[in-house]
Design a protein that fits this description.
The structure holds 2 protein chains of 2 kinds. Chain A has 5 helices and 12 strands. Chain A is α+β, with helices and mostly antiparallel strands. Chain A has a single domain, classed as Gcn5-related N-acetyltransferase (GNAT) (Aminopeptidase, 3-Layer(aba) Sandwich), CATH 3.40.630. In chain A, a hairpin with a 2-residue loop joins strand 9 and strand 10. In chain A, helix 3 packs antiparallel against helix 5. The termini of chain A are far apart. The C terminus of chain A is likely disordered. By secondary structure, chain B is α+β, with helices and mostly antiparallel strands. Chain B has 2 domains: 177 residues, Beta-Lactamase, CATH 3.30.450; 59 residues, Winged helix-like DNA-binding domain superfamily/Winged helix DNA-binding domain (Arc Repressor Mutant, subunit A, Orthogonal Bundle). In chain B, 58% of the residues lie in helices and 12% in strands. Chain B contains 11 helices and 5 strands. Chain B has a 5-stranded antiparallel beta sheet, sandwiched between helices. In chain B, helix 8 packs across helix 11 and helix 9 packs across helix 10. The chains are: A alpha+beta, B alpha+beta. Chains A and B meet through helix 4, strand 10 and helix 5 of A and helix 1, helix 7 and helix 11 of B.
Amino acid sequence: MIKLCIGRSAPNRDTMEKIWRFRHEQFVERLGWEAIRREDGREIDEFDGDRALHLALFCEDQVVGYSRLLPTLEPHLLSDVYPEIMNGEAWPRAPEIYEWTRCVVAEGEILINQIPASQVLMTGVMEFCLVAGIASLIVETHPKLVNLLISTGWQVTTLALPSVRDDGLIVPIQARPTAYGLMRHHRLYAMQGSTLLLEPEVRNPLKPDLSLTHLPFLAPGRIRPTKGRLKESAYASN
Amino acid sequence: MDTEALAAANTMFDFLSETAGAKSRDDILKPLDRAARHFGFNCFAISGIPLPNERIDSYFMLNGWPVGWFEHYLANNYVHADPVIHLSKMQDNAFVWSEALRDQELGRHARRVMNEATEFHMNDGYSVPLHAAGGFQAIVTFGAEKLDLSNAARGALHIISIYAHNSLRSLMVQKASSRDRNLLRITAREREIIQWCAAGKTAFEIAEILGRSHRTIQNEILNIQRKLNVVNSAQMIAESFRLGILR
């Protein structure tokens, strides 16, 4: 199940510690991003501020998947690391627009309630956006992931030509979540229920006077396979 | 940005805006033809990739190939010998045929496909493999007499291909679901009730909103569930999204 942590808040200290270590294991030790290697084995950068949102996918008490959402009104990767990929054009920035970075799932065939962890994480990011009222995400990624996002039901606007960087192609996009798109994830992956573990003390980061509540149109209960229904084919036959 | 890259970007953004509200295959075919010609291609095609024991015929989605080549390719069932298709299954980066096949030892059948393609002015090409959720594979492919593609052109075509394929797919799904929906005959009243259910209202609350009795609404919900062949309201909402009753 996916848990939200905001900033580096003290009540989440144990969870945050697991997140920093998981990020180091995945991005530095597994994927070889040497530029962010740290002596203490905790991958933390200058963007992990008070309003960074951490979505951590847990399998029992272990982090097995992760994504970070950064507010676009504050420094984020597109503004501070590689703004040149926009070729001088502006990109959408607003309180309800976040930047999606550091998306990763641990290796191995990890299942969460019989569903592959990667599918739970991808579905969970869209579900979280709908729950919190995030209108869109800015993503800088490889075109093949642009294809994945479109085919799973995100409404994707391409913001610039793909650029060639040392680690391959990268293209900035804006991806909008919709209820239709979330249901498309559920059908493609033959799942029902919610991916999110919403703790009552965690407030909505966009509207701090509200708590986060599950979407009314999802089947109640935790994410699980749908019974007796075939997955939707990603290709309709002619 | 240099002028060539700027022109590539403009071609990409033109294609994206022209196809944003595509209602038919033609709405995609014509802008794709314009974009392909801008980058020096004379033909293109979009197709799903069939399993080893299947033919490509029913997977073909958009055909901008020379007529003679299309017929020849199908008649000879070339898809399983075609080295471009083979490469597309093995990797997910887009590639220029001549660059990707340069160091490959091609078999007799593969060489034959590539040689015969040249008779139809497809001496070289650029192909974009697409791997969708669920393990399905497709390819968007462009053919040319001679190719000189900049990085900007490659990037633009890669994005154009992704959008062209996904727009086609969603047109096909829309067509299928509107056919299903027409068979179901969901009324405006039923649609309204489904919308309230999706907003999280109970039968009791919907009755209050619509000024009907609780029992009437309960019956209507059961009736909708029977029509959609589902057993609870979460399934009813999921199925309504699938059929396009809810958007």
